[in-house]
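Q: Please design a sequence for this.
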């Protein structure tokens, strides 16, 4: 009786794990979409949010020659043709690994994320509450393009390489996102929202892939801590810095004028971007590590 009960308990635990394995991408997609909406409500639809956001953008007067050169080259490299080539490489890797579902998912992720961002930018209303009279730039197309390409490379590469690809991708996307703010193409909220939208689209596609492979496959092991730990640590430290900096900038705007400089506001925005990049890439690495194994023992 004890042995039978143990087997039944193990079976129930396995079923619970598979159920959570299938549902978790939907939860992450919902939370990411809700986060993007919250960013819009706070930093676009309120006067204080717009003021703080614009102050962070205008404070990015970087004069260091090497920093300026890196930011300029990174923005220059984020061109449609270059991103298309990377996407084709990602699709090709999926085909070579006999994972047509990943190739299709990669293509859909890039298309869905970038179309969604462009449609939102074209149709969302941005009232002029901070007196800047600047057109709507929410969300950031450059950040969405860079993040979607990094996401598909993580998705299609073998599991052993996904952690390293995650760290490299997060570094690249951080530079692109910060560069768009430095160039005054976008405010920090534009880049954060773009990241969350890409994560939401990727999570939905991961959910479809997992549904397709449902039916007894065991979820894969968790990603290596060598990849997730730096992302978690970075997200926590950057989030703490952002919260502190945001409080100081708000006080400077509402209570004590000139409490902080424009450069401080810019660095606060950079901390927020860094926290968003590390957080979204952490969840994406976890999602791709949970990709079910092929049904007949193929390599994943």
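A: Design:
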């Amino acid at each position: 009786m004890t042995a039978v009960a143990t087997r039944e308990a193990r079976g129930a635990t396995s079923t619970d794990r598979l159920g959570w394995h299938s549902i978790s991408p939907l939860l992450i997609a919902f939370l990411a979409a809700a986060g993007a909406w919250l960013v819009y409500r706070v930093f676009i639809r309120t006067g204080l949010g717009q003021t703080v956001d614009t102050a962070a953008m205008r404070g990015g007067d970087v004069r260091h020659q090497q920093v300026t050169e890196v930011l300029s080259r990174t923005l220059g490299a984020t061109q449609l043709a270059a991103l298309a080539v990377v996407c084709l490489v990602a699709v090709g890797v999926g085909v070579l690994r006999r994972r047509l579902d990943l190739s299709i998912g990669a293509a859909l992720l890039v298309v869905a994320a970038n179309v969604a961002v462009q449609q939102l930018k074209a149709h969302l209303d941005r009232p002029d509450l901070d007196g800047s009279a600047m057109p709507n730039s929410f969300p950031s197309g450059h950040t969405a393009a860079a993040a979607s390409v990094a996401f598909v490379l993580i998705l299609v590469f073998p599991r052993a390489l996904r952690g390293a690809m995650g760290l490299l991708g997060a570094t690249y996307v951080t530079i692109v996102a910060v560069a768009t703010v430095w160039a005054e193409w976008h405010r920090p909220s534009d880049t954060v929202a773009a990241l969350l939208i890409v994560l939401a689209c990727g999570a939905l596609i991961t959910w479809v892939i997992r549904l397709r492979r449902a039916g007894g496959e065991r979820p894969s092991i968790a990603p290596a801590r060598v990849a997730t730990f730096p992302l978690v640590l970075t997200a926590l430290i950057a989030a703490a810095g952002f919260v502190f900096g945001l409080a100081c900038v708000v006080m400077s705007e509402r209570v004590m004028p000139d409490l902080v400089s424009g450069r401080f506001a810019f660095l606060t925005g950079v901390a927020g971007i860094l926290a968003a990049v590390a957080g979204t890439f952490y969840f994406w690495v976890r999602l791709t590590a949970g990709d079910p194994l092929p049904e007949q023992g193929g390599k994943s």
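Q: Thanks. Anything notable?
A: Residues 1-16, 295-300 have pLDDT under 50 and may be disordered. The CA atoms of residues 144 and 194 lie 5 Å apart.
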